[in-house]
């Protein structure tokens, strides 16, 4: 009995400590966003439990007309748009590639799969400079270019995941559909994609996150065009981080981070539901 | 009327060890409304054959005709066949109703017609109360019915079945077999059914085709194949225990192998006359123990319950004969037996002498 209590105590202690470590930064950002002191240093330990909530940072972010009459919500909308397209393209690319690697009789299949796997080891931000030079030549320093640059960041890894996931789906499911009257492509869309839904959701989530949170590539590609700015560039600009001469306003940065988190939260809830639903419907199927 | 015809079909697979010829010039012709069971050892190309008929796989050489029309270039969706898979392939994310309705939805049938048809088929297969359920709430036997229901819903008059009963436990399998037989009687659809289970083949088939070494070795009604196998391989495959086979000399009216002497039956007397050596086959159940027959030594006794199998040794041969379960032979006993009926095969080609023309 005592042994059980001790082991429970120890495990809860470990959980509480790790939880504190992961929750504290989020809480810190949240609290900072409601303070009107722009400097991090001015925040003291008693300030961690704020006595008064200031909305000045949020007000500032929602006021329009910074540069060329744009505003932070517009930049968030831009980011969501970019990220959504990236997620869609990533899913399409990863799933078709995964399907081909898993099912179709294509030449050099094994080499290709290994190559894709190895590619995922490289961080894609190192490609920012060569991509900038290449895309400048191709007139792709715009959203199309950004999406093209973001997509491989997720889809190479996801293609490999998709291949593994499709490998585990018995071919008879899509064959049954093909005999029942659909083409191979339709069977892929209606049956394989549906059975591989956890990977589809994961790919979409990763693709969205990658594009939504990117700063380096967006900064390199679209800095001159304020109307096209993404939320990350906007936030850096508004918090004074783009200009080394100005003092950074961390309360604004924190408020922007909280606002940017809202679409992510929504997406995460949806994709998590999709994943658990997909898993539960697959349970017990041989 | 010839409904399904395979003409000189060849299929080769590339594997790690090189190329494997699975089908080597296979010919088969199936009449309308028959339930043809394709029987053969595992890995013999039975499933390959079904996949070629359905169009999921394309043959390297040869032609497939369905309903008298060449379909080599048609994709599976345009061949108007239905298929039941060994693992049922019932979509786990759809309800039973949606599964059965799937082929109808694809064909863009009106909703009222879909509902009507699905409930009609569900009633026939007694799965009406399962329509709202998800596949993971069903038992193996129920899943198998859903798979058959989906195949029927399509309304195709050719149904392919790839070992549909293999994943069921023994008791359910016997019921399912009987039901399938009744269903076929009622619907009169052409069914091509693949299995490696002899009992299933014998009890279900209106005709059985034996697939081995890339070709159909024998094709006919189950009992005809059993009693008069087309060649020595078929004789050694069909039956449990299978037919006893050994080579013998032909000596004016007798088949002789050392101490064994069996008289040539009348039906073979004409064809056997000109031959020196033949392969003799006799079923374990057509041997009778008696006082003055061929004498043999008992090597082993298998007591099945319904009968006992004696493994006996005589004239360098290991033979199996079936006896009364009440007999109490032991290893080492000397028995004598005579053979009541034999089948003769050509010593070279191993073909049944009666079927050679």
Automatic annotation (TrEMBL), chain B:
Any one Gene Ontology molecular-function term assigned to this protein's record: transmembrane transporter activity
GO cellular component, one term: ATP-binding cassette (ABC) transporter complex, substrate-binding subunit-containing
InterPro entries: AAA+_ATPase, ABC_transporter-like_ATP-bd, ABC_transporter-like_CS, ABC_transpr_MalK/UgpC-like, Mo/tungstate-bd_C_term_dom, NA-bd_OB-fold, OB_MalK-like, P-loop_NTPase
SUPFAM superfamilies: MOP-like (SSF50331), P-loop containing nucleoside triphosphate hydrolases (SSF52540)
Domain ABC transporter: 4-238
Keyword hit for Lyase: no
Highest taxon of source: Archaea
Protein name: ABC transporter ATP-binding protein
């Amino acid at each position: 009995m005592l042994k059980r209590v001790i082991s429970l105590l120890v495990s809860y202690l470990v959980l509480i400590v790790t939880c504190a470590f992961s929750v504290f930064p989020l809480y810190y950002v949240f609290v900072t966003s409601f303070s009107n002191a722009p400097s991090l240093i001015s925040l003291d330990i008693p300030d961690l439990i704020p006595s008064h909530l200031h909305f000045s940072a949020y007000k500032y972010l929602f006021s329009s007309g910074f540069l060329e009459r744009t505003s932070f919500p517009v930049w968030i909308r831009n980011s969501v748009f970019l990220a959504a397209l990236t997620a869609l393209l990533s899913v399409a690319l990863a799933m078709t590639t995964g399907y081909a690697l898993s099912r179709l009789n294509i030449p050099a299949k094994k080499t290709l799969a290994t190559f894709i796997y190895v590619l995922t080891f490289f961080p894609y931000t190192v490609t920012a400079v060569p991509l900038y030079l290449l895309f400048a030549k191709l007139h792709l320093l715009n959203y199309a270019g950004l999406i093209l640059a973001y997509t491989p960041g997720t889809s190479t890894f996801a293609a490999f995941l998709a291949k593994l996931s499709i490998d585990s789906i018995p071919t008879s499911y899509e064959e049954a559909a093909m005999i029942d009257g659909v083409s191979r492509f339709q069977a892929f869309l209606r049956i394989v994609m549906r059975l591989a839904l956890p990977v589809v959701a994961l790919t979409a989530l990763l693709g969205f996150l990658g594009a939504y949170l990117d700063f380096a590539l967006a900064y390199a590609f679209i800095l001159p065009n304020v109307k096209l700015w993404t939320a990350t560039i906007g936030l850096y600009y508004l918090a004074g981080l783009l200009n080394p001469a100005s003092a950074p306003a961390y309360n604004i940065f924190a408020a922007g981070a909280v606002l940017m988190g809202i679409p992510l939260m929504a997406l995460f809830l949806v994709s998590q539901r999709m994943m658990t639903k997909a898993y539960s419907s697959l349970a017990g199927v041989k | 009327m010839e409904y399904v015809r395979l003409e000189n079909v060849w299929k080769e697979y590339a594997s790690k060890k090189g190329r494997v010829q699975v089908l080597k010039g296979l010919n088969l012709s199936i009449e309308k409304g028959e339930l043809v069971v394709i029987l053969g050892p595992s890995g013999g190309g039975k499933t390959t054959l079904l996949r070629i008929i359905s169009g999921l796989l394309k043959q390297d050489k040869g032609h497939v005709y369905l309903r008298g029309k060449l379909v080599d270039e048609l994709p599976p969706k345009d061949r108007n066949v239905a298929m039941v898979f060994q693992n049922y392939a019932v979509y786990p994310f759809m309800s039973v109703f949606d599964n059965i309705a799937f082929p109808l939805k694809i064909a863009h049938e009106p909703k009222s017609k879909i509902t009507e048809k699905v409930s009609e088929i569900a009633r026939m297969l007694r799965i009406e109360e399962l329509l709202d359920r998800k596949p993971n709430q069903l038992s193996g036997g129920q899943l198998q019915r859903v798979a058959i229901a989906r195949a029927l819903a399509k309304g195709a008059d050719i149904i392919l079945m790839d070992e549909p009963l293999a994943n069921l436990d023994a008791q359910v399998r016997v019921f399912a077999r009987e039901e399938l037989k009744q269903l076929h009687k009622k619907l009169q659809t052409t069914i091509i059914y693949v299995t490696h289970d002899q009992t299933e083949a014998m009890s279900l088939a209106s005709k059985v085709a034996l697939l081995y070494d890339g070709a159909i070795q024998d094709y006919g009604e189950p009992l005809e194949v059993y009693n008069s196998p087309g060649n020595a391989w078929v004789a050694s495959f069909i039956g449990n225990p299978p037919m006893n086979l050994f080579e013998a000399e032909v000596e004016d009216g007798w088949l002789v192998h050392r101490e064994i002497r069996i008289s040539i039956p009348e039906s073979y007397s004409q064809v056997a006359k000109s031959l020196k050596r033949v392969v003799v086959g006799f079923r374990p159940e057509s041997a009778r123990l008696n006082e003055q027959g061929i004498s043999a030594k008992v090597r082993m006794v298998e007591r099945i319950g319904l009968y006992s199998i004696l493994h006996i040794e005589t004239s360098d041969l290991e033979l199996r004969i079936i006896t009364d379960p009440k007999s109490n032979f032991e290893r080492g006993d000397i028995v004598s037996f005579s053979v009541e009926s034999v089948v003769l095969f050509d010593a070279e080609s191993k073909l049944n002498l009666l079927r050679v023309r």
